[in-house]
Amino acid sequence: MTASRTLRLGLTSAAALVAASLTAPVAMAAPASSSASSPSPAPLRDHATTQRAMDAAVQDGVPGAAGQAKDKYGTWKGTSGVGNLRTNKPRSAHDRYRVGSITKTFVSTVLLQLEAEGRLSLDDKVEKWLPGVVRGNGHDGSRITLRQLLNHTSGIFNYTDDEDFGRTYFLKDGFFEHRFDRLSPAQLVKVATAHKPDFEPGTSWNYSNTNYVLAGMVIEKATGHTYGDEIGQRIIEPLGLRATTVPGTNPHVPRPSSRAYGKLAETATGPTYDVTELNPSLASAAGEMISDSGDLNRFYSALLRGKLLPKKQLTEMKTTIKVDAIPNAGYGLGLMERKLSCGVVVWGHGGGIHGSNSEAVTTADGRHSLAFNFNGDWSGDSDAVIEAEFCAE
Question: pTM of this prediction?
Answer without folding.
Answer: 0.90
